[in-house]
Amino acid sequence: MYGQQMNQYGYQPQGYPQQGYDQQAAPQRPHMNASQMLDQIDSQTSKLGEEVLTDVKIGNNEINGKISLSDTKALVLSIPYSEGWTAYVDGEETELKEANTMYMALELPKGDHEIHLVYCTPYLRTGLCLTCIGVLCYIVLVLINRKKKRF
Questions:
Q1: Which end of the chain, N or C, is less packed with Cβ atoms under 10 Å?
Q2: What's the start-to-end Cα distance of the chain, in Å?
Q3: Model confidence at 146, in pLDDT bands (50, 70, 90)?
Q4: 114 contacts 64 by C-beta, under 8 angstroms
């Protein structure tokens, strides 16, 4: 590796060769030209397109599709991960995972699968109930106020 010498602060910064650094001992990486790298990118990109969600149907607050997998894989959806989404794989509720720090993903076993995603706004029912209670309280207060003014 690098020499054992320390700098004035008592440590050796990583990545800077010191005296006695042997370039022959450094790990060698295969050299590729730009054309070879592009060929690899093209082949890897085409592999990504082989097993995709098909027969996609998008409705109000739901998405349906089918997928056929040759091996256990993760289906990453370019839909931002958020509460409110529920996933069903072959009719059974399945855990949605967070992928790439912001997208939704499903872990799927080998085989043919039907995917059904449903979105329900979080706390919608709670908010609706609280709004109704608030409106009822307001009506009661207005009625009480009117009765007080009559007397």
A1: C
A2: 95
A3: confident
A4: yes
